[in-house]
Inverse folding.
């Protein structure tokens, strides 16, 4: 049975490991994990609790050795906070996280892996008016970009055929999370260059289908917090037009319908000034009084899992935070994934991770055998 050699930087809790091993099981090859790398001690603890230790497990990408033998797949996901639309969007000179790309580029230049996979936030594509993303692509695509030949490659580009696309978890996998990420796939010039991104598919699973039963009371929002989130003084006639059969009785900030379905209206910077959530909807409670934030409610889907879990869900007529287990489910992790650190660290790890199912479908479209 063929063995493929893989390695990853910014490995986190090992979403790539789960994805490549799923593909290996489906296609019939073995995986040799040459190295993983992550500086965060809590991520390393979770990684080692859920995976066999890699042959080489350094902390720092600037100090780790580059294997002499080319890998079959190199996976990298440089820290994205500097590019995120939710972040400060600082330049690469101001935010040192933004330059970690060049370390990955250097790895590719030296190791010459057969394939590489980059993952990052969609905001990367518009960072500094798109110049950051263009620079990444120019340095990675010495041969072609999305099927079009590169006639005048950058003098520091690596000889790869590059494909990139923004993929949304809820459209690519049957996981109800609205999570857009840009993926950059590189194929070495001497490898089979027939890659296609996975096709979109209908979303069948709803957020309520992945929720846990019997959730600890600590995850439920207090009435004080709910009152802070609520949008007051909304014209009742407008609300009734938006949601048929809403009764005029307002109980503790909720609207209750005859079929016992409870609604809550939330501040939003849309035209109405509010959004309405009901059972099974997710609620983003970050910056609750913001005058510019909209899209607070995910109807029957989770909004993007972040590192602080500023997401709640309407569940059984109450509002609560998503649990760490639910966050990992929304990233494609099975329930046998061991949760061995604090909730705060688990939220951070889930938010920093890659949706396993999306990565699995990408890897399935590469030629290994």
């Amino acid at each position: 049975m063929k063995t493929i050699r893989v390695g990853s930087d910014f490995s986190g809790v090992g979403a790539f490991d789960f994805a490549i091993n799923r593909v290996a099981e489906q296609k019939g090859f073995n995986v040799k994990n040459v190295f993983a790398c992550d500086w965060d001690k809590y991520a390393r603890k979770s990684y080692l609790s859920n995976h066999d230790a890699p042959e080489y497990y350094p902390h720092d990408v600037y100090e780790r050795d580059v294997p002499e033998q080319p890998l079959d797949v190199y996976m990298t996901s440089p820290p994205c906070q500097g590019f995120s639309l939710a972040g400060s969007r600082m330049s690469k000179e101001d935010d040192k996280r933004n330059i970690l790309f060049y370390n990955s580029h250097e790895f590719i230049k030296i190791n010459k892996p057969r394939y590489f996979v980059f993952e990052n936030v969609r905001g990367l594509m518009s960072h500094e008016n798109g110049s950051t993303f263009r620079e990444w692509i120019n340095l990675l695509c010495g041969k072609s970009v999305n099927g079009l030949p590169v006639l005048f490659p950058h003098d520091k580009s690596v000889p790869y055929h590059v494909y990139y696309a923004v993929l949304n978890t809820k459209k690519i996998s049957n996981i109800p999370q609205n999570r857009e990420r840009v993926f950059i796939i590189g194929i070495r010039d001497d490898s089979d260059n027939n890659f296609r991104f996975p096709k979109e598919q209908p979303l069948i699973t709803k957020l309520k289908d992945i929720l846990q039963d019997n959730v600890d009371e600590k995850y439920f929002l207090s009435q004080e917090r709910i009152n802070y989130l609520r949008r007051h003084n909304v014209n009742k006639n407008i609300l009734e037009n938006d949601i048929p059969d809403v009764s005029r009785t307002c109980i503790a900030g909720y609207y209750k319908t005859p079929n016992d379905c409870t609604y809550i209206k939330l501040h939003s910077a849309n035209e109405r000034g509010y959004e309405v959530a009901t059972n099974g909807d997710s609620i983003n409670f970050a910056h609750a009084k913001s005058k510019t934030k909209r899209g607070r409610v995910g109807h029957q889907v989770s909004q993007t899992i972040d590192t602080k879990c500023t997401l709640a869900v309407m569940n059984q007529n109450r509002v609560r935070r998503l649990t760490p287990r639910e966050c990992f489910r929304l990233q494609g992790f099975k329930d046998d994934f061991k949760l061995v650190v604090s909730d705060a660290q688990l939220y951070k790890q889930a938010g920093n991770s890659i949706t396993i199912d999306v990565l699995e479908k990408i890897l399935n479209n590469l030629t290994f055998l």
Residues 87-91, 233-261 have pLDDT under 50 and may be disordered. The radius of gyration is 22 Å.
